[in-house]
Amino acid sequence: MADTPTPPEGDPDADNHDSERHALTTEIEAALLKTGVVPEHSAPKAARVAARVTMASFAGPLPPPEMLRAYEEICPGAASRIIQLAENEQTHRHFWENGALWNDVYVQSGGLTLGFILAVFFVIAAIYAAQQNMPKISYILLGTTFVSTIPTFVDAFRRSKSRKAPTEDVPVVQKLPGSKKGGQKRR
């Protein structure tokens, strides 16, 4: 176990790393002896070699070029199949994302259309109530229509303002307090 790297100094989990490494080495030694792959006098050295195996991982649909090359060496045509799988997955994902985006557009525009139709209906009902000499009902219909639609318009206005491209900050030249000529700073 002297050949195995130690955790950096000051690592709070150093004891944990050492105990995990020792447990792994012991487990490998026992497995090697049990299967008869390694003679008993060579087990500690074989366990040290086996404990140095590292795991490699990657993020994304494609493995790194070295790994892709290794796949191709082991199984000719594997690299092109892996690339084809990634392309198919990307096409599938784009299809579903496009569908989700269009669904959002339809839901939003449908909600706005339905809200507009209901607002027009209530305004017409309020006008009818006013013509029938029912001013209280007319006020209630108009009031609730405006109270429920105004926040929607305000929210839409705020969202449209937040979607605009941010403006670049222009440096401002400002006179420093107590300074005479040339006492300016840029912020």
Short structural summary:
Helices cover 66% and strands 3% of the residues.
Structure description:
- The chain is mostly helical.
- The chain folds into two domains: about 1-55, no CATH class; about 80-160.
- The protein is about 65% helix and about 5% strand.
- It has five helices and two strands, in the order αααααββ.
- It has helices at about 15-35, 45-50, 65-75, 80-130, 135-165; strands at about 175, 185.
- It has a two-stranded antiparallel sheet.
- Helix 1 crosses helix 2, helix 3 (about 65-75) packs across helix 4 (about 80-130) and helix 4 packs antiparallel against helix 5 (about 135-165).
- Mean pLDDT is about 75; it is low at about 1-5 and about 180-185.
Helical content band: 55-70%
Total helical elements: 5
Biggest sheet: strands, sense, closure?
2 strands, antiparallel
Which strand order do you get reading across the main beta sheet?
A: 1-2
Q: What amount of the residues lies in strands?
A: under 5%
The Rg value, from CA coordinates, equals 36 Å
Please state the overall shape, judged from the principal axes of the Cα atoms: elongated
Mean pLDDT: 76
Termini Cα gap: 59 Å
Report the order of strands and helices. Answer: HHHHHEE
Low-confidence stretches: 1-5, 182-187
Topology:
Blueprint: H1 14-35, H2 43-51, H3 65-74, H4 78-131, H5 135-163, E1 173-175, E2 184-186
Antiparallel strand pairs: 1-2
Helix pairs in contact: 1-2, 3-4, 4-5
Characteristics of this structure?
187 residues, elongated, 2 domains, mainly alpha
